[in-house]
Amino acid sequence: MKKILKLLTLTLFIWFQPLSALTEQLSLSDVPQVMERFFHFHIENKEWNPTLVRRAFKLYIEQFDSDKSYFLEEEVVPYLSMSDKKALEIQKRLEVNNYSDFLELNRLAQKAVFRARVVRGEVGKELVEQKRGLSTFSNGAVARYPQTVEEIADRQKLRMAKFYQFHEGRTRLETADRKAKVCALFEKKMRRFENLYLFLDTDGARLSQERIEHLFALRILKAFAKSLDTHTAFFSPEEALEMRLSLEKQF
User: How far apart are CA 103 and CA 124, in angstroms?
Assistant: First the structure.
């Protein structure tokens, strides 16, 4: 067991030592250094190429919208069906540490967040006013992105319905007041995640520029690492420390 722990600890050290020597907060200037280290250790990929660019943007999208309930199809198609020419243009910008394309994608995510919040406000009002709870739709995986705002509304409604039914199975939600409390709890949960893309704290105040840059750099590196292969992942110094402490408790 001790050997396993030492091996895992060494693995974490290999990937995070450069960052730990810098700061707990990532900056965009750290991104090239970490990417270079990944390329150094990776067997197949030693530099940016169009395939990695496509994968990285696809993964950045999935980090934010894993269940396809935020983005419209027309918004993500340019990234998911990226031409070789477009991929090469982005590659050249990435090679000179220009991350404006990721920033533009994050702006798109922010737009999707505001749209989803409007939808949830309407759905929540409907839930509180009706006598019965929300009915769930298909529980299967969604194959495509919504083509209309109405479809986005349905998928946001499904998420809320699942949350509502989870609590309905544990307590009676017969009054409008109790339903409203569940809706407020769901909204709080969603905003905790969404605020990270809006660069806001839990109270809705704008994060410091250092924290904004940390979150943005972290998302880029997570998408980049996974684009190399399914077994490669990037963790922030805080995440690495949490993982190490968890492993120490297990062994």
Answer: 31
